[in-house]
Amino acid sequence: MQLKLGISFLIVALLVLGVNTGVTHFVEEGNFVSSFLGLVMADILVACVAAVILSKILTRRIRKLVGATAVISQGDLTRKVEVSSRDEIGELAKSFNAMLASLLNVVLEVRSTSEQIFDSAQALSTTAESVNATTQGIATASQNVVRGAETQVEMLKHAGQLTREIALAADEIASKAQVAHRTVLEAGDRARISADDASRAKQTIGDIVEKIQKATLSVEGFRDRALLINTTVDFIKQLSQQTHILALNAEIEAARAGEQGRGFSVIAEEVRKLADESRAFAQQIQSLSEQINSESVDVIGAMKGSTIAAIHGKCVVESAVSALEEISARVLATLEGVREITELTVRQARGADGLVRTIEEIARIAATNASGTEAASVAIQDQTAAMEGMSTSAQSLAQTSDHLKDLVTIFRMD
Amino acid sequence: MEGGRILHFSAGSRHLALPLSGVKEVAEVHYLVSVPGAPAIVGGLTEIRGRVVTVLDPATGDGAPGTAPGAAQTPLFAVIFTEPFDHLGVLVRGVPETASAMEGAEPTVPSAGPEVSEWLSGSREIVLTGGCRATLLEPERLADHASRCVRAQFLVAP
What we know:
The complex is a heterodimer of chains A (about 425) and B (about 160). In chain A, helix 1 runs antiparallel to helix 2 (about 30-75), helix 2 packs across helix 3 (about 90-255) and helix 3 packs antiparallel against helix 4 (about 260-410). The radius of gyration of chain A is 77 Å and the shape is rod-shaped. Chain A has 4 helices and no strands. Chain A is mainly α and about 425 residues long. Chain B has about 160 residues and is mainly β. Chain B has 1 helix and 10 strands; from the N terminus they run E-E-E-E-E-E-E-E-E-E-H. In chain B, the strands form 2 sheets. A 5-stranded mixed beta sheet of chain B has the order 8-1-2-10-9, with no helix packed on it. In chain B, strands 3-6-7-5-4 form a 5-stranded mixed beta sheet, covered by helices on one side. The interface of A and B includes residues 242, 249 and 253 of A.
């Protein structure tokens, strides 16, 4: 092409030279301006003609190329440019054909790829929608998990509170068990002391019973002597009564004797008075004796009652001693049980403390899990949003690929 | 009667008196043998110094039941009348006492009524030293009353 252009320009130059030469021959001397103008005009004319001719020659294949390009621009990629020369235009045509072929391959590739992209986009959109649905489900599930975790945290807090209360109660039970242990220990000691005191009381009551019985015998003897006094007093009373009657009869005889019996009447009166006094004193003695007898009876009754009560008390004390001994034995047994209970409650209190700490740790972990689940839920929501965006992008990609396909369909490839 | 010595005693609901001159003796009644079919006024028979004495119970005369010696809480005595009624005596519960009739006290006649025995109606009352009032006992009237009661109880064969 350069050679052709060079040759063309040389031809043009030769033509111009020739024209100039010719014109110079025909142009008169001294008419320089006219000659110059004429020369120029001639040059221009020659140049124009040469340009037209050369341009037509040069542009004929370019126009073909342009025509092919126009056809190709309409989308027909099957049109090839005929290559009839080996110059630059021919090279251009070859290159154009090659480019066209490459473009065709590219378009075919693009169509294929767009179809694949479309299919993939469709599949991706479907998958994105599925994943989105799944993610929705996961989000919902994670929300439920979050709510459940929050509920779990609340329940664990509540459980922790209850466990703390249980721990406090266990501590209190342990302390009370220790107090009960000490109390039972003291009760056992007191039971032993009480049993000893009861034994001594039983012995004392036995001594008292013995003394009361002796005193009862003494009082009964005393009462017998009082009864003997009564008998004597009765005799004395009877004597005084008889003396009184005797004095009365003496007075009667004295009254019957008249004046001679007056002195005797006085004596009888004095005797009667003595008899009355004796009877009065006897009556007093008898009343005292009866009083003594009555009081002796009362005392004997009271002493017998006391004896009975003492014997009963002795039996009660014996029963109490045996009961106290049994209580002491059972207290010792209970003491062992209380000691075990105390140990168990102390261990329970320690276990409750450990349980509290464990529950608190669980609550803390649950809270952490809840927050993590919350973050996961947020991430899932973000993922859902991203999946929705991806779905949207996939749809957009599908639309784009579809558009690309539509664009590719503009091109005719077969 | 005034200033004289009086033997006074209780008989049932009444307080009776008897001048010492009308009393032979006062004896304790240890046992009293009841007479079957005898009226209530006849308390029974007793033995005093070897003699059988009919003891009259003036308490029954007022309607009060008789008292058997065995059941008596207080000792029983018999006031034996002087002759001619020394075979009779009055059953007394408790020891009789002596006193003097108050001087200047007018004896009064007790009012008759359904509670007054036949042998007491019309008897005099006297006041003794100490202010005690007693009905003066008349042995004749009491003996007569007892006899009539016995005769009425035991029919005499014609």
